[in-house]
Design brief:
The chain contains 23 helices and two strands. By secondary structure, the chain is an all-alpha fold. The chain folds into two domains: 233 residues, Orthogonal Bundle (MetI-like fold), CATH 1.10.3720.10; 275 residues, Orthogonal Bundle (MetI-like fold). Strands 1-2 form a two-stranded parallel ribbon. 44% of the residues are buried.
Length: 554
């Protein structure tokens, strides 16, 4: 009788655990969908007058500039990422082992940090133009020099930090290809270049397209670079409408335009990822033989692979160090320690909560692969396609309305003013981070979850474990490395995040990213180098993990 009661108790506990897990996963999905729904409702409530005014004034300019920026970044990341991936995978030349790992380093940099470094070097008072004037004796109007603070300059900064997305995926695709098809094309008379364009590139197309789409989504989400360079995109338009013009309806409608474009890109990326398996349709019968490059071919390969590393990582680090040494910013002053404490607190709390949310959603989908679980996981992943500015507007609109309504009710009923309970809090900002970066944590969690065989779940159940007990005693110990990776990725992404932090941070609660942006906006670039260096140093943590993985893939 006691055994029967114990069995019934375990079944009830298991059912209750599944119910709580389902409620948590659905609640997380609702939180992730809330900003998008709020933006849609706020945009529709703005009226047609605002829409017409936007279309007659700023909307065409925002759309054209954003589209041109997307095209330039797409072409640049494709050329550098695919070219470098092909060279380090299919050829041998001096320094190739070092370069194939170092090509990932620019991932540690936010694009706006590169913008600060290169403006210091290439702007009119910078060392390059000053040296040019000293050597030639020219005056300021006697020569032409490319303007770094331009659409082209912003595109270059974004290309330098985003090409690793394409490089990593293209390299993995080239490594998985069978050499048989490539060799067959060569045997039929095709040159190496012709075989690359006709065989290798088409087979790797889904992976490459996925990398380019990721770069494009980061491009439309960027605020710091385009704002500093004065490039008018949807991201800068949302911030201007919200804070400078105090036009909430206009900001919501601009956010809706950007959200629609982002969700379209997300659907394209998902479709490409779904077809990504056909780049290796048959089992590898023969490894692709690497070509040994010599002479000027080897020198050209070193230059082509080395230039992105130098200009995307090594030179900016050197410039930032030089700027930081010459600045008056004291990294160990109480003020800067406060910036670091705020940044680390926000990033740490957001990383822990985001990984916990990823565990809830991912484990629920594994235990119950139903429409509800799959739908919750799909909605939870949409945040990576939504720019931080859109999420900020989508959260501020409903919660500001709630705060104002609650304050008005408290005033009428109890003659007490509650102020802004939620809108000005750190927790709403943490929710914005969770929505934005949950997809990254889910990706790392699901990658580790693939190592947990279904038989382990069955064995745990047969031993009397509840779903929560299986998660705690079986899954989490195995998934510890993947969860650590997810924590690091989200931690660093939050450290770098600027638009949502700039819009939603509590009063007088600044982070390293906000401090760098403020100093750069005041043209105090030497000072901006100090917080920028700390952000880059934090960003190197997950990049080192990726580099170690790249080094083991051979």
């Amino acid at each position: 009788m006691n055994q029967a009661h114990a069995h019934i108790h375990k079944r009830v506990a298991s059912r209750d655990g599944m119910r709580r897990l389902a409620v948590a996963a659905v609640a997380i999905a609702v939180i992730c969908a809330l900003p998008m729904i709020a933006v849609l409702l706020a945009a529709l409530s703005g009226g047609t007058e605002t829409v017409r005014h936007l279309m007659q004034t700023v909307l065409p300019g925002y759309a054209g500039t954003t589209l041109l920026l997307v095209i330039l970044v797409s072409v640049g990341t494709f050329c550098i990422g695919v070219g470098a991936a092909w060279l380090v995978t299919m050829t041998r030349f001096p320094l190739v082992r070092w370069l194939e790992i170092m090509l990932v380093l620019p991932l540690a940099f936010p694009a706006y940090v590169l913008a600060y470094a290169y403006t210091h070097v290439l702007d009119h008072p910078g060392i390059v133009q000053a040296t040019l004037r000293d050597v030639t004796g020219w005056g300021p109007r006697d020569y032409w020099f490319p303007e770094i603070r331009s659409l082209g300059g912003a595109a270059l900064m974004l290309v330098l930090v985003l090409y690793p997305y394409v490089y990593l995926l293209a390299r993995a695709a080239f490594l998985q290809q069978s050499g048989t098809t490539f060799l067959a094309a060569r045997a039929l008379g095709s040159s190496a270049w012709a075989a690359f364009f006709k065989v290798a590139l088409p087979l790797a197309r889904p992976a490459i397209a996925g990398g380019v789409l990721l770069a494009v989504m980061e491009t439309i989400a960027d605020f710091g670079t385009v704002a500093y360079f004065g490039v008018q995109t949807f991201a800068t338009g949302i911030y201007t409408s919200w804070f400078s013009l105090f036009d909430r309806a206009g900001a919501a409608q601009l956010a809706l335009c950007l959200l629609s474009f982002a969700l379209l890109l997300a659907m394209l990326e998902r479709a490409q990822r779904g077809r990504a398996r056909y780049h290796d349709p048959s089992r590898r019968t023969q490894a692709m033989p690497p070509v040994e490059l010599k002479g000027w071919h080897a020198a050209a390969a070193v230059i082509l692979c080395g230039v992105p590393v130098i200009f995307g990582a090594l030179l900016p680090i050197a410039v930032l160090l030089w700027m930081g040494i010459g600045s008056e910013q004291d990294l160990f002053s109480p003020r800067y320690l406060g910036f670091i404490r705020n940044s680390v607190t926000l990033a740490g709390v957001a990383a822990v909560l985001t990984v916990l949310a990823a565990i809830c959603v991912g484990f629920f989908q594994r235990l119950s692969p139903s429409r509800l679980a799959n739908g919750a996981a799909y909605v939870a992943r949409l945040g990576y396609a939504v720019p931080g500015g859109v999420i900020a507007v989508g959260l501020l609109v409903p919660f500001a309305a709630f705060d104002n309504a609650f304050d008005a009710w408290m005033r009428r009923t109890f003659d007490i003013s509650t102020g802004l309970l939620i809108t000005g809090s750190i927790w709403l900002l943490v929710v914005a981070y969770l929505v934005r970066f949950l997809a990254a944590a889910l990706g790392a969690y699901e990658g580790g979850q693939a190592m947990v065989h279904a038989n382990m779940d069955a064995a745990a159940r047969s031993l009397g474990q509840t779903p929560m007990g299986t998660l705690r005693r079986v899954h989490l110990p195995i998934l510890a490395p993947s969860l650590l990776t997810a924590l690091l990725i989200v931690f660093v992404d939050v450290m770098k995040e600027l638009p949502a932090t700039l819009i939603m941070r509590p009063f007088n609660y600044d982070t390293l990213a906000v401090q760098a942006y403020r100093l750069a906006s005041d043209e105090r670039l030497n000072g901006a180098a100090v917080p920028s260096l700390v952000i880059v140093a934090m960003g190197l943590l997950p990049v080192i993990l990726i580099c170690r993985q790249v080094g083991r893939q051979r």
